[in-house]
Structure formats: C-alpha cells, structure tokens
C-alpha cells in the first residue's frame, strides 16, 4: 500500500515512530512549511530560522538515504498555508491510500490531525511519540489514584524505571535530590565557558533571507543566531556542555549574572524539542561522564532531574489536563502585559537584562524565566493568556506542550496548585541573593517602601494582601503570612498605596 509519512517541524528524528518500517520503494515522506504554523504567534525570528533550517537539513539527510521526500517550501506558489490543505494536495498528487503520523506535541495540531480521519478512502495511523521516556499511557497509569501529581514522586518513579543513578532500589549517594546544594551564587573568579555557536551554511543563509523578508516585524534579533541546525551539530553542542558546563551545573543552577547569558546551562532545549537530540541519549551521555568521575553527583543528579523528571512530567501533565485547564485563572488576573516585555524599556534592571537577552538569543535560562519575568507577571497580576503568548513567542524552545504548563502552572499558579504546592512568588531579596542585577539598578532591594524601594518588594506583599483569602489557608504559605501579620495596618496601607501607584504607571505605558 502506498503510504505517506507526514513529518512535522518538531519531529526531526530519524528514529521517530512515523518512519519505522518505511519502504523506500513505495512510501514517501511529506514535509511542509506552513504559513498557519509560522504565524500562529509572532515567533521570535531566530526560532523561525532554527525550525525551517533544521527541517530543510533533515529532508536533505533523508534524501541522502534514498528516501523520497516531498518538501513544500513556505514561499512556494501553490502552498495552501495549512497542514490540512497540504495533506489533501499531497494525497491527490501521489495517490496515497494511507498516512502515518507520529502524534503531534500540541493539542491544537492533534485536533487537526484527528480531522484527517474523516477523509473518505484514507487510512490514518497515529503512532505514539517514541522520543519520550514516558508515554502518555504510562503517565496516566502513574497518576491513577493520586490526589496530587507532584513532580518529585514522578521523578523517583522515573529513576527506578530508567535505573539512572540507582544502586539497586536505592538512589546513588543515599539521597534522591541534591537541590539544596544547587543554590550557590557566582563568584568573580569563576570562569564561565562561552556558548558553542555554529556557522551559518548555505541552507541557513537562505532561510535567514526568507525570514528577514517575510517576518522582520516579528520579535527578536537575528544577528546573534548561532544555534545548531543539524543532528551532528546538536550532538557537538551536547558534548561541549558535558565537558565545559555540566561539572558546575549543579552548584550554579539557580544563579544569574549580568552579561552571562548561558552560565552553566546546556542550552539544548531547542534541540530536544525539535527532535535533533533524544532525551535517552542525553541522559546516557551524562551518566557516562559521571561514571568516568568528571562530573560530581549534585550536577549529574540535578541535570538528570531536569530531563527525566521535569521535562517528562511537564509533557504528561499537559496531556492530562488539556484543554480545559488552559482557561483557569486562579487569581482572576486581568492586567495587560506591559509594553516593556517587548522593548526591554524599563528601569527594573533584572527585567531589562532578561528581556534584552531574550531578544538577542531567543533564550533565557530557567531562573530568569521563572523568577524574573514570570515572578513579575505573577506579582503584577498580568492576565495568564497574555503572559503565555509572550513565552510562546520569545523562546527558541517554545512549544505549547512545554511552555504552557511552565507558564500557566509553574510561573503564574493560574491552575490553583495542580502543579506546585505554592506560588513561586519572591521579593527583591531573592533576586539580590541569586544575581548581581541589583548593583546596577536604580532601585534598592533592601528598601521595602518609599522612594527607591525595589518594586518586587512592595508588589510581593501586595500580592499576599490581595490574594489572602486564596493563599492564607495554604499550609506552605504560613511563614509569609506570619511575617505579614507582624506589619502594622499603616505599613500595609502604604504597601497597597505604593503598589497601586506603580501598577497604574505600568498600565499607562
Ligand atoms: C515560564 C517558563 C516558561 C518555559 N517555557 C519553556 C518552553 O517553552 N520550552 C522549554 O523547553 N522549556 C521551557 N521552560 C523550562 C526551562 O526554563 C527550559 O527548558 C530551560 O531554560 C532550557 O534551557 P537549557 O537547555 O539551558 O536548560 P538546562 O537548565 O540546562 O536544563 C536541561 C534540560 O532540562 C529540560 N528542562 C529543565 N527544566 C524544564 C522544565 N521546567 N520543563 C521542561 N523541560 C525542562 C530542558 O529540556 C532543558 O534543556 C520554561 C520555564 C518557565 C519557568
Ligand atoms: S533592585 Fe529590584 S528591580 Fe532592581 S534589579 Fe534588584 S530586584 Fe530587580
């Protein structure tokens, strides 16, 4: 039977289930650049270059194996601009009777694909995405009967299943989690390795020209583009991180520093999410370095937790609660996203630096995303869907399945606690402890109120005051509320006044 294998832009793995059993004599692969996807939000220009260039390179690598690839370019005259339109055209063009697809990562695209099943005379086979270590069915089995789905328990279950860092049934070193030793602040003496960057080849240059021509109004700079666009390059980036970043990853995982954009982070999420790297091989490379003694346990454990814990958990969580949970808004937040999230034009130095880095690299590391831009959006009561759209636009690794739970649930607590036991809300003291941003800021992180006080300080207390009915009953919020209770009514009144004046200012800019 003549079969079409549809490969989507984030499914660029040779071993992906949709390609299993491909018969080069009868089957062909369809890859299509579609306008609807390129413009579903105003993606960062670097993300567009990365995805389109990686797709074109992947198609070339399949052709080198003598696999027939029907590749539709974005600016092709007859391109209908949608998955359904392109699939219909391809079915007619090639007279195929069957389509094989790997399940898409995103709810919206899954709906489109499910719609193909009604095409008369066409068989549609949707296969599991074999690139995750935990399938959707396995996640559902793990979650059955649990009152809350906490990542830590999922992670321990995954450690046992995979055997990574296990001594029989016991965790290596006697502890499951070394997070408490992963909070060191950077010192001046520490040398941070430069990020591995890749030169643009002819294919990427062509895509850069296309993006400059068609998407120059989208967010972000293109000049500093240096992402890997092939599997070979992504493997090089991984190896570079294992040698130069991983040994220090654990200690400095939460640290932030002006001018240091990647610190000891891997910057491999865009490759994992596109399929250029597979989580299992990343973990094996980490284990190899650990077993050779070149990486300490807190780094190996801390990094594995991100991959087999957080990443897999977030994906299972997404499919468990979509689509209804996307609409939740626990704090009834309604403020519009301030314009400085796009321009970086703000006096709050931590925000300015994070937004500028994001524009330059289509990347910011986890603590910048969670504790700077995310924390501010939470404290300022910005409407969740606007924050989510921003995160989906600005990062090279952003796809709904991973961006949404991280933003909606982890950063904004908009689901009321399905993912976290309490909101990740913090004052300027936290940012001052974990970064050097405050030393260059017009505000003072030690001042709670009055002229020059750090806005994160009074916004933090304001957040606790206005959300008291929802948060005070939470046992994990006992300490902050005890501290609030120590304040006089006058202090609380002044906090409210200053916070409301500040928020009115950002509303008007
Ligand atoms: C508000 C917010 C939005 C986010 N949006 C995205 C997104 O759109 N896409 C995305 O891939 N990650 C997202 N994350 C998670 C995390 O910030 C990024 O995966 C990480 O910063 C990527 O950089 P890195 O490769 O240097 O990661 P490292 O810090 O080196 O971590 C290694 C890997 O672990 C995985 N990982 C770590 N934390 C998470 C997590 N919370 N969720 C899923 N995977 C994780 C990633 O694959 C990452 O590459 C978001 C986090 C927050 C707080
Ligand atoms: S003082 Fe406040 S606003 Fe300024 S950098 Fe520090 S935390 Fe950010």
Task: Describe what this molecule looks like in 3D.
Helix content is 48%, strand content 5%. With 509 residues, it is mainly α. The protein has three domains: 3-127, HUPs (Rossmann fold, 3-Layer(aba) Sandwich), CATH 3.40.50; 136-193 and 245-321, Alpha Horseshoe (Serine Threonine Protein Phosphatase 5, Tetratricopeptide repeat); 340-508, DNA Cyclobutane Dipyrimidine Photolyase, subunit A, domain 3 (Orthogonal Bundle). The strands form two sheets. A five-stranded parallel sheet has the order 3-2-1-4-5, sandwiched between helices. Strands 6-7 form a two-stranded antiparallel sheet. The termini are far apart. The structure holds flavin-adenine dinucleotide and iron/sulfur cluster. Flavin-adenine dinucleotide binds next to helix 10, helix 12, helix 15 and helix 17.
């Amino acid at each position: 039977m003549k079969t079409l294998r549809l490969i989507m832009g984030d499914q660029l793995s040779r071993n992906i289930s949709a390609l299993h059993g491909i018969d080069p004599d009868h089957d062909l692969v369809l890859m299509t650049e579609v306008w609807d996807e390129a413009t579903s939000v105003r993606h960062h220009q670097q993300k567009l270059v990365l995805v389109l260039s990686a797709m074109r390179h992947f198609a070339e690598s399949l052709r080198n194996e003598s696999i027939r690839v029907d590749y539709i370019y974005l600016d092709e005259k007859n391109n209908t601009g949608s998955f359904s339109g392109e699939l219909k055209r391809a079915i007619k063009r090639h007279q195929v009777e069957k389509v094989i697809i790997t399940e898409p990562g995103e709810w919206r695209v899954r709906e489109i694909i499910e719609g193909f099943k009604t095409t008369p005379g066409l068989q549609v086979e949707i296969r599991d995405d074999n690139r995750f270590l935990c399938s959707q069915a396995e996640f559902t089995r793990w979650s059955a009967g649990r009152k809350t789905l906490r990542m830590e328990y999922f992670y321990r279950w995954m450690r046992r299943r995979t055997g990574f860092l296990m001594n029989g049934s016991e965790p290596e070193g006697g502890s499951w989690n070394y997070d408490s030793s992963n909070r060191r602040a950077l010192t001046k003496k520490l040398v941070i390795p430069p990020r591995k960057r890749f030169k643009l080849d002819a294919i990427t240059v062509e895509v850069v020209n296309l993006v400059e021509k068609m998407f120059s109004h989208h967010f972000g700079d293109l000049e500093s583009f240096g992402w890997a666009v092939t599997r070979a390059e992504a493997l090089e980036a991984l190896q570079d991180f294992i040698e130069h970043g991983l040994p220090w990853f654990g200690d400095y995982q939460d640290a932030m520093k002006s001018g240091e954009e990647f610190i000891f982070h891997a910057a491999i999420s865009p490759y994992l999410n596109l399929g250029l790297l597979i989580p299992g091989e990343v973990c094996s490379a980490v284990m190899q370095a650990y077993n050779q003694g070149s990486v300490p346990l807190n780094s190996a454990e801390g990094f594995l937790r991100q991959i087999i814990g957080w990443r897999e958990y977030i994906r299972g969580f997404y499919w468990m609660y979509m689509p209804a949970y996307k609409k939740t808004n626990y704090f009834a937040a309604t403020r519009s996203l301030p314009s400085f999230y796009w321009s970086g034009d703000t006096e709050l130095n931590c925000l300015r630096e994070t937004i500028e880095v994001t524009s330059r690299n289509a990347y910011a590391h986890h603590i910048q995303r969670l504790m700077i831009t995310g924390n501010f959006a939470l404290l300022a009561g910005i409407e969740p869907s606007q924050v989510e759209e921003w995160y989906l636009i600005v990062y090279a690794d952003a796809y709904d399945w991973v961006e949404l739970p991280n933003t909606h649930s982890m950063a904004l607590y908009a689901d009321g606690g399905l993912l976290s036991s309490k909101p990740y809300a913090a004052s300027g003291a936290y940012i001052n402890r974990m970064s050097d941003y405050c030393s260059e800021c017009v505000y003072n992180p030690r001042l709670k109120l009055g002229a020059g006080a750090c806005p994160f300080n009074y916004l933090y207390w304001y957040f606790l005051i206005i959300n008291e009915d929802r948060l005070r009953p939470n046992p994990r919020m006992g300490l902050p509320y005890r501290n609030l209770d120590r304040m006089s009514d006058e202090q609380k009144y002044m906090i409210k006044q200053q916070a409301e004046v500040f928020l009115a200012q950002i509303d008007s800019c």
